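Usage

Read records sequentially. Each one opens with the input sequence:
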Amino acid sequence: MIRRQIDTCRRRTPVPISFLIHTARTFDCDIYIHCDDKDVNVKSYDEMIRDMSARAKSLMFFFNGSDELAAQQKIERIFQG
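and closes with the structure output:
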């Protein structure tokens, strides 16, 4: 399992939630965000809309599975400016 704090405010424009979900779904591993004492499944649109807090400057991502390293690297690149 990889745990990574990612600064979500490094880009000038926000990352569309649909793009983040689509990217996460290209990987086999589980990808979660810890937000407001909840673990939110990044691959689930309903969970992201319901439980995701847009207030956070940085988020704790968890990657667990066979391609977790590739997923972590790709998600981090999405948020780079």
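Summary fields computed downstream for this record:
- The mean pLDDT is 92.
- Residues 68-78 form the longest helix (11 residues).
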